[in-house]
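Subject: Protein record for review, amino acid sequence with backbone structure tokens
Why sent: The fold of this protein is of interest and is recorded here as tokens.
Notation: Tokens come from a learned vocabulary of local backbone shapes, not from coordinates.
Attached in line: The record itself begins immediately under this heading.
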Amino acid sequence: MALTLGRLIQSLGWSYLGPPTLLDLPYRGVSIDSRGECKDRIFVAIKGERHDGHSFVFQAWEKGSPLALVEREMEVPCVLVPQTLEAFQSLASFLLDLWSPTVVGITGSSGKTTTKDLIAALLKRRFKVHKTVGNYNNLVGLPYTVANMAPGTQVAVLEMGTNAPGEIARLGTIARPHIGVLTNVGRAHLGPLGGMEGVRKAKGELLEGIRPGGLLVYNADDPSCCQLAVSFPRTLSFGLEDGDIRARDPHLEGREGRWLTVFTVTVSGESMEMALSVPGIHHVYNALAATAVALELGLSLEEIRETLATFEGPKRRMAFRWWRGVLILDDAYNANPDSTWWALKTLVSLPAKRRLALLGSMLELGDEAPYWHRWVGREAVALGVNWVGTLGEEGREIAVGVEEAGGEARAFPHHEEAARVLANMLREGDVLLVKGSRGVEMERVLGLLGVE
């Protein structure tokens, strides 16, 4: 039976103010932005830090939204609730109960989005899959993802992010995953979460939300993940050094004009070589996590091998670009100390005349920010990077670390200066890594260079 607006409102105990005829309309999802698609969708008026969605209810109604979810009475048909965000989250839980997909919840300090996309790509071979769009992974984004899930969805692949204690616990309460995936516990959001112990506790909140009898998939090479998983009833681990599912001999290999990450997977006595189309040894961990979920849901290693070979990674996550004979590693989406180290590791593993890195500030590291920025600079020199440029106030500390280790570095005051210098210094055969936190907008430098 199709879900109508009337049945939805009645099931959630909401108060409806509007003509009775609207209650017979089918539920078609939600909108949280009046600038986007609103037709036939409930408009959820969320109060944010900068905007109050109630100010845009009429615009959404003009664009075809039949009713709004609001905290105060409006001049359009509406559902009146004490708190729209809480009601929105209840709507998501209701739909998951109603349509009963297998829920896969993914968190970790890095690799969440790529792992989510890998899992979805694998499971689409057999199931009707709905996944988080982009990184809509917070207390608004996850309900939005679920609320726009189509009836008949068999697997919901949901990314869970955090920059505050208790956020993943709440996301787990909403989603109640059957399978929880913990990619790693690293040095991200150290400031908001209160250091590494706070990060470990925050990521460990995922375990509280996994349904009874559910499965925890975790990184066996990460001591914090192992510590969290030690008493969980059902687990499946992965890693390069340890784990139920292991990868041997991971390396980059050039094939038919592109770079692949090649490795051999071993599980339950069976081995198979895989070639992941996304370059980077760190992506082997993401592929292993996805492999674990796929095997749990019945896929074969052969199906996994075929999908990994054609997988296209998320935008600005170690994407290869060419510019005047220079190979550019576009990893500009985000950064923390661990993901930056792995990106530098990938950079130095590629053949090149010179290996250069343009690195931006790594945000939300709190009081430890100067130390970890300098650490990245020193590690860049130790790994063999020939030159490092930096952007952002905190990014200057990376340059300090490079110079402390005897390397060559330059701190740029703005994106335009960085682009101008790079345009003059890059030579055919060079490889350039571009990486930084989202707030630094490292992709602007690529745009100024004319890199697509």
